[in-house]
User: What shape does this take?
Amino acid sequence: MSVYWYNTLMHKSRILLIVGIWIAVLPYLGFPYSWKNILFTLSGLGLIGFSYIIYRESKTKESAGSADGTFDNFSENRDFGEDKTVN
Assistant: This one.
């Protein structure tokens, strides 16, 4: 349920833009150093998690594209199971 809400609410590119702006502006917001370190760490972990989600979804889409398990560069080798008789 949360993944559906997440995908319908914001586009992934917009989230990356917002996180990038947040990280760029964070040093100038006047937070104490301890808070700044914690916020940078949390922002970095969030960015890592989000990029992993995008990576996993791209791999799922790639594997869904080749449903029969073969790829275009091996399409000429599909007839290995045929009965080959020589006359």
